[in-house]
Amino acid sequence: MKATIVKTLTVSIIRILRPLVRLLLRNGMSFVTFSNIAKWVYVDVAAREFGLDGRKQSVSRVSVITGLSRKEVKKVKEMSPPVDTVFAEQYNRAARVIAAWRREKEFTDSSGDPLVLPLQGKGYTFSELVRKFSGDLPFRAVLDELVNAGAVRRTEDNCLRLLVRSYIPENNDDVKLHILGTDVGSLITTIDHNLQADDSKRFFQRKVSYDNLPQNALAGFHSIAAGLSQKLLEDLDARLATCDRDTNPEIEGTGRYRSGVGIYYFEEPFDKEE
Q1: DSSP-derived 3-state class of residue 266
Q2: C-alpha angle 116/238/93, rounded to 5°?
Q3: Using CA atoms in the order 250, 133, 125, 106, what is the torsion angle rounded to 10 degrees?
C-alpha cells in the first residue's frame, strides 16, 4: 500500500472513529469489547469477500489477509454472529406503516394528508394499514410502538391521528443504535463503491458544508434543510414503494436488492485540530 494511501486512510479512520468512540464510551463499551468485535468483522469479511475463485477460503489465508494468528481466526470463526433482528424489525415495521399512512391513497384525504383512522372495523382502518404494510404482526404491537414514540394519538372517539411525517424512535435507544449501524454502514458502502467504480457507475454522493458560520444562521438553515429533505424523501419513497415486492407481490424481475437515499444534517463547533 502506498504511503500516501496509508496516511490518508489513517486520518479518515480517525475521523470515523472519533464520534463512534465517543458514542461507545457514553454507552459503556470498553476497548476490549470493541477490539473483539473488530476481530470478528475482519475475519468475517475476509472469509466472505476475499477468497480465491473456485477455492474454499482457508483459515491460513484469512490469517494472512487479516494479520491475525491462525489460532485467533479459528477462535473467532467459532463465535456466533451478533444479530439485532428484533430491533431491525421493530424499526422497519413502524417506518413502513407511517410511510404508507402518508403515501397510500386509501389512507389519505383529497389533499394528500393522512386520514384519522378507526382502530378496527370495516373499510380503511389502522388494523388494515398494519396488515398490508407490516406483515402478520398483531396491529396492537405496532400501535404500542407508535404511541410510545409519540407518532400517533388517540382521538375522543377512539380513532388514531398520525402526528409525524416519519418514524423517529424517541424512547428506544436500542432501535436508535440499530439505525447507527444501518445508516452509517450504507454510507461507507457507497463511498467504497465509488472508490472502485468507473465514473458512469458511481452512486450519487454529495454534501453541502461551510466551516465559518455564525450560530444564529443555523436555526433557519436547519428548518429549511429539514423541510426540503423530508419532501424529497417522501417523493422518493412514493417512487420506490411501487416496486417493493413486500407490498406488490405481482412485481416481476430478477434478483433482490436494497436501494435508497439517506440525508443527514450536521452541526458542531469548528475544531481546527480535528
Answers
A1: coil
A2: 65
A3: -50
Distances, alpha carbon 234 to alpha carbons 46, 166, 176, in Å: 38, 9, 21
Cell of 229: 429533505
Q: For residues 112 and 110, what is the distance between their CA atoms, to the nearest angstrom?
A: 5
For cell 466472505, the residue is: 48
How far apart CA 193 and CA 203 sit, in angstroms, is 8
Per-residue pLDDT tens digits for 105-163:
999 999 989 999 999 988 899 999 999 898 777 888 899 889 988 999 999 888 999 99
Q: Distance between CA 31 and CA 196 in Å, rounded?
A: 31
158: left (phi over 0), alpha (psi -120 to 50) or beta: left
Residues ≥6 apart with Cβ < 8 Å to 243: 251
Q: How far apart are CA 24 and CA 44, in angstroms?
A: 22
pLDDT at 169: 82
Q: How many CA atoms lie within 13 A of 174 on its CB side?
A: 10
Higher pLDDT, residue 23 or 79: 23
CA dihedral 15, 16, 18, 22 (to 10 degrees): 160
Q: What is the mean pLDDT of the chain?
A: 91
Q: Provide the CA 18 distance to its chain's centre, in angstroms.
A: 20
| Strand residue runs (E) in the chain | 117-118, 152-154, 159-162
